Amino acid sequence: MELNTKKYAKYFIYLPKDKSEVFNIFIIEKSDEGRVLGELIEGIFPKAEVYWMNMPEEYDKAYNGLADYMIFFDTICCEKDVLSIMGQWFCALNEKGKCIFNYENISEKYHYGHIETMLYTHSMALDSFDDNGLFIVKKMLVEEGRDLLTCRYSRIYVLCPAYHKTGGPEVAHQLVYWINNLGGDAYIAYGNTERYKIWTNKELYKYVRGHVTRYEDISDIEENLVIVPESAIDYVFMTKKVRIFLWWLSVDNLHTNVDVSDKRELLGCIDQRVDKHLVQSAYAADFLKKNGIDRVRISRLADYLNDTYLNNDIKKEKKENIVVFNPKKGVDFTKKIILNAQNIKFVPLSNMTTEEVHHLLMKAKVYIDFGNHPGKDRIPREAVMSGCVVITGKRGSAAFYEDVPIPEEFKFEDDEKMLDSIIGKINESLERYEKTVIKYRDYQKRISGEKAEFIEDVKCIFFDSEAELNEHSNSVE
Question: Pick the residue with more confidence: 471 or 330?
Answer without folding.
Answer: 330
